[in-house]
Design goal:
mainly beta, 50% strand, four-stranded antiparallel β-sheet
């Protein structure tokens, strides 16, 4: 059974930093797409950062480029999202997702497995 467990959310002031983690278990394939999505109230879920764990190639949304960094620790089956220079508009529930055959990395429908989410709140 595949499980994704996120951690690291919280409340910070604008300009602050947080690091999210996503631990993956039960996934039989070591090479896969791991993506962080976020969803604010009343808005669609959007892809923020992604990584293909086999090659380490990363993907970023324009809204977070230069501020957020995705990384992986294969030994720990963990993907991280380092978020710096946080803005109030970054406030959302953050989810990690895993998928094997992905054509559009930022499309939620491409991913079969999801974590339960971790809340990030940025105050001005």
């Amino acid at each position: 059974q595949v499980q994704l467990v996120e951690a690291g959310g919280g409340s910070v002031q604008a300009g602050g930093s947080l690091r999210l983690s996503c631990v993956v278990s039960g996934y039989r394939y070591s090479s896969k797409y791991m993506v962080w999505f976020r969803q604010a109230p009343g808005k669609e879920r959007e892809g923020v950062d992604g990584i293909y764990t086999g090659s380490g190639v990363t993907f970023y949304a324009d809204s977070v480029k230069g501020r957020f960094t995705i990384s992986q620790d294969n030994a720990k089956n963990t993907v991280y999202l380092q978020m710096n220079s946080l803005k109030p508009e970054d406030t959302a529930m953050y989810y990690c997702a895993a998928g094997l055959y992905v054509s559009t990395w930022s499309s939620p429908s491409e991913y079969a497995f999801w974590g339960q989410g971790t809340q990030v709140t940025v105050s001005s």
